[in-house]
Amino acid sequence: MDLLDDEPGNTPEFTVSELSGAVKRTIEGEFGFVRVRGELGRVMVPRSGHVYLDLKDDRSVISGIVWKGVAARLQMRPEEGMEVIVTGRMTTFPGQSKYQIVIEDMAPAGAGALMAMLEKRKAQLQAEGLFDAARKRPLPYLPEVIGVVTSPSGAVIRDILHRLRDRFPRKVLIWPVAVQGAKCAAEVARGIEGFNRLTPGGALPRPDLLIVARGGGSVEDLWGFNEEIVVRAAAASAIPLISAVGHETDTTLIDYASDRRAPTPSAAAEMAVPVRLELLAATRDFGARMTRAMGHRVEQRGQRLRDLARALPRPMELLDGPRQGLDHLDERLPGALRRAVDRKRLILTEQSGSLRPATLHRAIVAERNRAADRAARLGPALTRLVIARREALARRADRLDLRPLKRDIATGRERLAELTRRLDGAQGARVADLTARVEALDRLRETLGYRATLARGYAVVRGEGQVLTSKAQAEAATALEIEFADGRLKLGGGPARRAAPAAKSRPPEQGSLF
């Protein structure tokens, strides 16, 4: 019995990896495509971009993973507590002996879940102040350029252009976007941000007003306008924005963040511009009212002026008194002139009675005597002044001494001689140094020249005017010329000629060194 217990049985043996692989193949083969409904538990998004989550009900939990590429295509963002329906395939993770579902699509489990998620997102954004009335700006009365973010192929843009053309034609820039589906939110947000980045007055003008428009649809069709990225782009827009998404009963989160909400795209066009004919009629009415008001004002002022004129005297009456006074003065003027002449004549007669030639002669003699007396006293006074100034000059000359000046002159002369001697010595040393440098450079030139090499026993071979450096060149030449240190020797030509000794460079003159 003991021997039988030690013998191996018929049960096959598996390695851990083989068993894990078999379990993986079994699960993936049986559950290659599944749809599961449940509540999202833990939701984690690491730096890799993948989404790790738990799908649970009241009794069980299944781990799930959404790869990065699939997560970018999801129409909703997974949030903890949401009830969803996921589609994917079951697999295992052998490293931790666990099974999980690889999610390829995710949708809310009914309209109730969508509305709950919508209310939660609305409360979050409202708490941040994105829906405050203080953030909303008034719309421009008559914008020059209107930017429209919508689909270029739908009936919405045609309705907007038709209403603008009927009311008041304006320039319209269209930013084409997808108005539903996975790309809707990102493209609408980029459209709003793109219009805001345009430069005012540039080649492509920046709009004065934005309209985000889309026709009606279900909650799922309009869901892109409930995304957080769209709401934040609308709230951050520096350009006033009108939201015209869906019909009058449809409400999306962009309606709360925009400056104005229009029930339909056509109503957004009506909000954007006034009616041109109404403006023209109003302008004509204002012009007529202004003309009537001006006429009435002028008439009132004219009547007031006429009333004031009746209270004023006539101009001729104002001049009657001055004219009469002038006549009275004219009658009195001749007699007054005669009396004034008589009075002046009397004064002149009284003054001339005291004037006699003898009196003038006495006055002249007195002035002449006074001048002669002053001339007699002027000479001695000038003499005394000259003598005093000369004595003062003599006193100052006695205080002058030439010996300090002579000492300064002698000291300056000695300094000048010393400086001259130092300058001559420096000049001579400079000339000697430069001469020695020139001679050393000349010796270096002779040493580096090829003639010094010839003196050591070398020779230069030339053929046909060129220096030959190989035996083949020498054999090919018709005549050779060999240069030695003491002259040149021609082979195959005329007599040899002695090379002229190199002229020794003469040192430069002293004046050329400076």
From TrEMBL:
Major place of residence: cytoplasm
Residue ranges, annotated region (Disordered): 491-514
Subcellular location: Cytoplasm
Exonuclease VII large subunit C-terminal domain sequence ranges: 130-401
Compositional bias segments (type: Low complexity): 496-505
Entry GO terms, CC: cytoplasm; exodeoxyribonuclease VII complex
Record EC number: 3.1.11.6
InterPro entries: Exonuc_VII_L, Exonuc_VII_lsu_C, OB-fold_nuc-bd_dom
Boundaries of every OB-fold nucleic acid binding domain copy: 14-106
Key words of the record: Cytoplasm, Exonuclease, Hydrolase, Nuclease
BP terms from Gene Ontology: DNA catabolic process
Function: Bidirectionally degrades single-stranded DNA into large acid-insoluble oligonucleotides, which are then degraded further into small acid-soluble oligonucleotides.
Family: Belongs to the XseA family.
Cited HAMAP family: Exonuc_7_L
Record text on subunit structure and interactions: Heterooligomer composed of large and small subunits.
The protein's name in its UniProt record: Exodeoxyribonuclease 7 large subunit
Source species of the chain: Ponticoccus litoralis
Organismal lineage: Bacteria, Pseudomonadati, Pseudomonadota, Alphaproteobacteria, Rhodobacterales
Gene that specifies this protein: xseA
